């Protein structure tokens, strides 16, 4: 128990920097480290600013002729805020971010230096790219890769204890233009969505200047543990999750942690995080305790999805770096503690016009309700036809531990609209029509179409893809992953569904069908064909799994290795290439990287399990047995010796089995290795853990050197 008190004592001594006042947060801090449009407007001439604004707001091509002027303004702004270096900040296929810093200072021939930053340096850089995963798109001896400025996401300042760096959001591509990052396909999918949705809106009377983009708000769940415990857990340090640990007598059973009082130390950490996020222009709105002990959440409000993806990566970085200053460690793994609630990243996704109209808002007028119904039909069609892509977008070795457990949805992709909307959909399909009499229903303005509820009833926490009033909540993404791929997939499949239904609607209107009847007919047809994907019951129930797979024909891709092969199916290759998001080579490369990362993740865990059991747990247990042998020959001691000796032998045998599986690897190809670690190494790891966790309950605290769940989850 002594080490518990030492952590508490250390927490009281943690120094905390001064945090801004509420008024300062509003007037001085928010977006102070972001190069905003107002900043650029004040530093650029009107013609230059208008040209740049067209790129920001309408997707116009960047005028290279203004690059030097913009670069000078950007450099001056950054140096005024203490920046000495700049970097193209990008998202390689590792799932994290990358940056190579270059100084603004340039040596002169007379021994002096000047500060320079050209338009060429702003627009493009050439980092050494040989060590980033490419999935075969480029050989390891080929180092050339290019980062290219993404002007649609604002530049920002990242601060550190000795200064600051100007970060320029960028894409990352090979020398021949193939995407080596997460942002490029995201931007391409955004354009595909705009190309598909605008023609549909024009049929509903939209103005000629309308543009459409997806919007997103990503909730971030994470665990906090005391830093002292973290450094005593090799599994947390190297794998991000506990490979051993007996479930404590008290976990989340009492349901008293959720929305509970936040301890002062944690609340101070959260305030520090929020101040930094505000300075970066990240509109974080919510903070609270989550379900499991030691688990918390922060959530922003809606933003353009490309900016939201950048902000999500920054949020993870700020949470983790700030925790250390407060004597804490933030764990972003999807399942850091077995038997406890996992951590996800719920992605609240919708579509909006440049005039601020949310296309999934039911609205107050007949016109808006017809439009809403049309886009609901497109969403149902998209999710049903592309269940595999949604599943692939959240697939990882770490998320496999979470999906279908505690708070996470199952791996089966289904949609939830709520009882009232589902009832209305059924009435449309049956042809009943008429006006509903329930309070709060909005008139469709047509005798053939029923009313739409403003609120679609209660939420379903087990649904992977739930409609929540004016948006869809994709609950399956994992807490540690980049959200760029899930957004890319949601944009792409929605673009495809809308484009197909728009062609059908235009043909019907050209043939003289009224708009309300045409929308009703299209919805009826789509709903009848794709309603199998709608489910409003308990997603955890095994009866649903059987019904979904055996009766409805929905995919049940239980593990990531079941999902990955679908990425390069003929259907998906055709979809990605037709919309210009990824070509066949780019898809094959991503699939190869997915298999490779899966194998390496589990392989590291397998070898780490072996090492900890061999060098820590077995010695701990043998030392305890030595203590027991020296304690006399009482009945209790003899009983304990027999029990511990039996489990020690079991641990040794299980360890030999794991060692053998770690050594075999399953073949030469990464696909074979991935299936080997899933089918052989993971079960062997579990056998070692099960015995070790039994021993943890028997060996004295003094001898068991790994910090326990009780300590890590409850000592803050």
From TrEMBL:
Pfam families: Gln-synt_C, Gln-synt_C-ter, GSIII_N. Residues 182-617 form the GS catalytic domain. SMART domains: Gln-synt_C. Coiled coil: none annotated. InterPro entries: Gln-synt_C (IPR040577), Gln_synt_N (IPR008147), Gln_synth/guanido_kin_cat_dom (IPR014746), Gln_synth_cat_dom (IPR008146), Gln_synth_gly_rich_site (IPR027303), GS_Type-3 (IPR052725), GSIII_N (IPR022147). One of its GO terms (biological process) is glutamine biosynthetic process. GO terms for molecular function: glutamine synthetase activity. Residues 84-177 form the GS beta-grasp domain. Belongs to the glutamine synthetase family. This is Glutamine synthetase catalytic region. It comes from Deinococcus proteolyticus (strain ATCC 35074 / DSM 20540 / JCM 6276 / NBRC 101906 / NCIMB 13154 / VKM Ac-1939 / CCM 2703 / MRP).
């Amino acid at each position: 128990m002594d080490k518990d008190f030492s952590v508490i004592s250390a927490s009281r001594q943690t120094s905390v920097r001064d945090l801004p006042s509420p008024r300062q947060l509003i007037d001085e801090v928010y977006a102070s480290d972001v190069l905003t449009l107002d900043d650029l407007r004040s530093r650029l001439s009107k013609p230059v600013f208008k040209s740049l604004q067209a790129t920001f707001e309408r997707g116009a091509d960047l005028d290279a002729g203004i690059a030097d002027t913009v670069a000078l303004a950007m450099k001056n702004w950054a140096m005024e805020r203490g920046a000495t270096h700049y970097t193209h900040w990008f998202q390689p296929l590792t799932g994290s971010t990358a940056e190579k810093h270059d100084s603004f200072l340039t040596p002169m021939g007379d021994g002096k230096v000047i500060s320079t930053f050209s338009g060429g340096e702003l627009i493009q850089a050439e980092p050494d790219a040989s060590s980033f995963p490419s999935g075969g798109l480029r050989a390891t001896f080929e180092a050339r890769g290019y980062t290219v400025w993404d002007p649609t996401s604002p530049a920002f300042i990242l601060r550190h204890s000795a200064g600051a760096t100007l970060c320029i959001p960028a894409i990352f591509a090979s020398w021949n233009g193939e995407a080596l990052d997460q942002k490029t396909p995201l931007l391409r999918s955004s354009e595909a969505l705009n190309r598909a949705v605008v023609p549909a809106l024009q049929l509903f009377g939209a103005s000629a200047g309308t543009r459409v983009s997806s919007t997103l708000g990503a909730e971030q769940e994470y665990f906090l543990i005391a830093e002292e415990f973290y450094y005593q857990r090799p599994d947390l340090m190297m794998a991000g999750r506990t490979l051993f640990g007996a479930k404590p007598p008290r976990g989340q059973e009492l349901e008293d942690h959720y929305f509970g009082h936040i301890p002062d130390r944690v609340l101070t950490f959260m305030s520090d995080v929020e101040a930094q996020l505000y300075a970066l222009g990240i509109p974080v709105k919510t903070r609270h305790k989550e379900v499991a002990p030691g688990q918390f959440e922060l959530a922003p409000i809606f933003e353009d999805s490309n900016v939201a993806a950048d902000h999500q990566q920054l949020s993870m970085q700020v949470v983790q770096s700030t925790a250390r200053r407060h004597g804490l460690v933030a764990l972003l793994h999807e399942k850091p503690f077995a038997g406890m609630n996992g951590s996800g990243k719920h992605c609240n996704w919708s579509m909006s016009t440049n005039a601020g109209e949310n296309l999934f808002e039911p609205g107050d007028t007949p016109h808006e309700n017809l439009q809403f119904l049309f886009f609901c039909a497109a969403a149902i069609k998209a999710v049903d036809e592309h269940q595999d892509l949604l599943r692939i977008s959240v697939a990882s070795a770490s998320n496999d531990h979470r999906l279908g457990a505690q708070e996470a949805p199952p791996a089966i992709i289904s949609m939830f609209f709520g009882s009232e909307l589902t009832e209305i959909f059924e009435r449309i399909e049956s042809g009943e029509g008429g006006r509903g009499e329930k309070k709060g229903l909005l008139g469709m303005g047509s005798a053939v179409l029923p009313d739409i509820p403003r609120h679609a009833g209660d939420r379903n926490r087990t649904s992977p893809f739930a409609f929540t009033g004016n948006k869809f909540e994709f609950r399956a993404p994992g807490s540690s992953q980049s959200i760029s791929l899930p957004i890319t997939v949601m944009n792409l499949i929605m673009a495809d569904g809308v484009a197909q239904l728009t062609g059908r609607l235009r043909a019907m209107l050209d043939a003289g069908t009224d708009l309300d009847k045409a929308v009703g007919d299209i919805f009826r047809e789509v709903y009848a064909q794709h309603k199998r994907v709608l489910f409003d019951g308990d997603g955890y129930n095994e009866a649903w799994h059987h019904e979904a797979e055996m009766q409805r024909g929905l995919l049940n891709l239980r593990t990531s290795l079941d999902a990955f092969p679908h990425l390069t199916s003929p259907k998906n290759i055709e979809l990605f290439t037709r919309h210009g998001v990824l070509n066949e080579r780019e898809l094959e490369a991503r699939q190869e990287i997915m298999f490779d990362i899966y194998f390496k993740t589990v392989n590291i865990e397998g070898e780490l399990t072996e090492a900890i059991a061999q060098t820590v747990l077995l010695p701990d247990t043998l030392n305890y047995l030595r203590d027991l042998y020296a304690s006399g020959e009482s009945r209790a001691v003899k009983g304990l010796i027999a029990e511990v000796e039996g489990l020690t032998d079991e641990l040794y045998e299980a360890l030999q089995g794991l060692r053998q599986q770690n050594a075999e690897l399953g073949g030469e190809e990464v696909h074979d290795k991935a299936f080997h670690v899933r089918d052989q190494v993971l079960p062997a790891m579990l056998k070692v853990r099960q015995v070790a966790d039994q021993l943890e309950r028997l060996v004295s605290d003094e001898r068991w050197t790994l910090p326990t769940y009780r300590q890590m989850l409850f000592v803050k």
